[in-house]
Write a structure and sequence with these properties.
Helix 2 runs parallel beside helix 10 and helix 11 packs parallel to helix 13. Strands 2-8-7-6-5-3-4 form a 7-stranded mixed beta sheet, sandwiched between helices. Strands 9-10-13-12 form a 4-stranded antiparallel beta sheet. Helix content is 38%, strand content 18%. The protein has 2 domains: 95 residues, Aspartate Aminotransferase, domain 1 (Alpha-Beta Complex), CATH 3.90.1150; 235 residues, Aspartate Aminotransferase, domain 2 (3-Layer(aba) Sandwich), CATH 3.40.640.10. It is globular. It is α/β, with parallel strands linked by helices.
Length: 339
């Protein structure tokens, strides 16, 4: 099966798979005290600066535990309505952190200072959850991007009002590839406090990282990770993937390719009369509308998700292993079915 459903559907990049095999020798210290984990953390520091890094299993784990480290049960996190923590994590923030989510309606998945300013009146009122964290996704769940200036404005506003800025970076490599910047330029240098760094969607088998760009916030996090069942005993098998991920900029090659495939797909559908692209195609996602009666036939050969059934909005995601043949084959089928 070939699909445009999700970059989670893709396999593991061969170099990353080989890296797992390569560390499957002899014995190593467990729970992250191995030499591979030390090297992987150092590679993060080369890219982000003097940061604290903790590896976890999943993106939800990274988001939830990153927030848990900087929030109390009476705190609230403000985020776009479309944010993964709000729509696709089964209430994990509320259940595990115990904190309230305040979702903000947006058209493109991005929030601004003006969207948040209204909620400052809640500060100090014991009848309301206290705004403590602004959480953004880079890129957003719609594949759109925050500029460095937009991120800096949000972090400045957060810090001026006693809040923190959290970034869900499940696809941060795609953002870096699209913007032509370094990881540091859109995180450390613009005031992000805590980053959930994603690898799974960009060629890894499993493994994400909680990166404390503000190191003062990482105090006690090793206990939070263990208590929350996210401490890997054989951590070298996660760490080895990150080493391969960063070596020779494999992350950048993978993300650049996925982004290019999305643009190729968008270019191919823009002149099909019954298809309308509804979001800017900036990374590896294409959001479009098409008549609902054609969707089941298309999904038989190339599965993809319907994001909004009432509006007939679909999402087509490209991955590091999406090929031009995949794109051209889907475009051919699309034209045939919609003819």
């Amino acid at each position: 099966m070939r699909s445009f459903a999700s970059d989670n559907f893709s396999g593991v990049h061969p170099e990353i798979l080989q890296a797992i095999v390569n560390v499957n020798i002899d014995h190593e210290f467990a729970y992250g005290y191995d030499s591979y984990t030390k090297k992987a953390i150092e590679m993060f520091r080369e890219r982000f600066g003097d940061v604290d890094v903790f590896f976890v299993f999943t993106g939800t784990g990274a988001n939830v535990l990153g927030l848990k480290a900087i929030m109390r049960s009476y705190d609230a996190v403000l985020c776009p309505e479309s944010a993964h923590i709000n729509t696709n994590e089964c209430g994990a923030v509320e259940s595990i952190v115990g904190s309230h989510i305040i979702p903000i309606t947006t058209k493109d998945g991005k929030i601004s200072v003006e969207d948040i300013r209204h909620y400052l009146h809640l500060l100090g009122d014991e009848h309301h959850a206290q705004p403590r964290v602004i959480s953004i996704s880079q890129p957003t769940e719609f594949g759109t991007l925050y500029t460095t200036d937009e991120i800096r404005a949000l972090s400045d506003f957060a810090h001026e009002n006693g809040m923190y800025l959290h970034m869900d970076g499940a696809r941060i490599s795609n953002a870096v590839a699209a913007m032509g910047v370094s990881f540091r330029e859109i995180t450390t240098d613009v005031g992000v406090d805590v980053l959930s760094f994603g690898g799974t969607k960009n060629g890894m088998m499993m493994g994400e990282a909680v990166v404390f760009l503000n190191k003062a916030l990482s105090k006690g996090f090793k206990y939070i990770r263990k208590q929350s069942t996210q401490l890997a005993s054989k951590m070298r098998f996660i760490s080895a993937q990150f080493i391969a991920f960063f070596t020779n900029d494999l992350y950048l090659k993978n993300a650049t390719h996925a982004n290019r495939m999305a643009k190729l797909l968008a270019e191919g559908v823009k002149d099909i009369p019954k298809v309308r692209i509804i979001q800017r195609v900036q990374t590896n996602a294409v959001f479009a509308t098409l008549p609902s009666e054609y969707i089941p036939r298309l999904q038989e050969e190339y599965f993809f998700y319907v994001i909004d059934e009432d509006a007939s909005i679909v999402r087509w995601m490209c991955s590091f292993d999406t090929t031009e043949e995949d794109v051209n084959g889907f475009l051919s089928l699309l034209k045939q079915v919609l003819a």
